[in-house]
Amino acid sequence: MTMFKLHVNKDFRVGIGDLSQMIGVSTRQLRYWESKGYIKSLAGEEGSTRKFSIGTCYRAATIRAFLDEGYTLAKAVAKTEQVKNQVAIVRHFENEMLKDIKVTDEDKGYGEIDYGYLANEPTKKVYGVIDENGYRMETREVNADETN
Fold it and tell me: What is the mean pLDDT of residues 46-69?
């Protein structure tokens, strides 16, 4: 299985009014966040309406979610940055380690994620499993003819 990175269209832009509606904050509040450097609009022509990238939309939605949990704006922004860093680590790990995904039950959303061989154990593979028993990691012996 060949893995590839999916990239969102770089031209994807959302206007300030649409972003406001999407995440449930006022345009005034978004402008304030922008003035503080918490979010950034895309460079545009002088006098044009603000446009935001998909990344900024996610960032603003995450800030809003932390505000809803009771955090102050400054703490919500700090927590958002922490989440961004954590997601980057998970993405990097998945890009490096993920070997294959096998769907075992489409209707129930069950499957197995193949993370490859266990370090220093050429006959054991690591799998992430989702099934009727929940979520778990497990190792499995692999037949000698399956190795490599």
Answer: 90
Confidence of residue 145 (pLDDT cuts 50, 70, 90): low
Beta carbons of 15 and 50 less than 8 angstroms apart? yes
102, containing H or E segment: strand 100-105
The residue among 30, 12, 32 whose CA lies nearest residue 20 is 30
Q: How many domains does the chain have?
A: 2
Whichever domain contains 71, its CATH number is: 1.10.1660.10
* Half-sphere exposure at residue 117, Cβ-oriented, CA atoms within 13 angstroms: 11
Tell me the C-alpha to C-alpha distance, in Å, between residue 18 and each of 52, 100, 115, 127. 10, 37, 39, 41
Q: What band does 146 get if pLDDT is binned at 50, 70 and 90?
A: low
Q: Rounded to the nearest 5 degrees, what angle is found at the Cα of 53, between the Cα atoms of 94 and 8?
A: 45
CA distance 62 to 86: 13
